[in-house]
Amino acid sequence: MASTEPNLSAPIASGTRGGGQQHLLLLAPPLLTLLLAQLLFSLAFHGATDYLDVVWRQVGASSPGDDLLIREATARFAWLGSAMLYFVAALYAIVSCAAFLFRGLSGRQRSTAFAACAVLCAAGLCLLFLQSRGAGAQRVVIFDFTWRSLQAFPGGLSPIFLDAVRSILLIINALAVIAPLFILVATCCTAARPPDAPEDEAAHVADRLRHLKELSTTAVVMMVAGVLHMGAWLQWTAGLVADADHARRIAALAVAITSYWGTSFSLLAAVFFLPPALLMRGRAAAAMRERGDGAVEVRRWLGDHGFATSPGQYLARAAMILAPLVAAPVADWVSKLG
pTM, whole model, 2 decimals? Predict the structure, then answer.
């Protein structure tokens, strides 16, 4: 019986033995997706100072009172909790990805992977520094949105507290650059061919798919933590406004901004996982056909070893990928608990 499985491994099969680096081409789709998200978000900068001035005026015009102070404290603790969650998620992502690169690769592939991490992280941190010195969309619409509100709060937040907040944000922003890049390089390296052909190519690919699923789950958890932190940071401003109607409108604006990045992160999660997964699926199917397995046996083996072959399996993966998008309204709900 003729096989209907696509031979996705063919385009990169030749020349990949002996420590080939073609798998690093998988870096391109996520980086281009992130660039597109940032370019589209930059459109929010046009006219941003107009509506942000309205927000900051509402904060400055609020009369301090017991209710407002309690609301601010509630928003403060929600943000601190989200910051702690992000610290743990990002550090775990960096450590787990570095461990996979060290144990899962050897020789030149390992050196190249860590070099790629170093170059990408250096470039990302330089870009972060330039953005912090400029007046781009991410600085104004996200950072200044709440930072200037905290400065204008009539309740009087101490300079020491504000310095601590700024330091926490500095660390979080650095982790937000480093951790995703480690995840990106690690997920691409799951598709790396070993220097020497394994005895059972299909079993080797199945083991790499297991690592890919673990890394993609780590990526989604970190993205969800990032969306929750962004939502808590932006919702903090709503807790600084005394007028309930204005506070609701500011909260709705915060949800809209957070939802944009939740959508972008969900798309990124898909782009992180699907290209290497499809590549390895084709490679495993090709290896099984080479040893004489028929189409039915190939499909059964793929399903048994975690390669999605049924609608239910696709839906389960889609639910995980959409988690960052769902995190935006969750962040709004958490901010209203108080």
Answer: 0.82
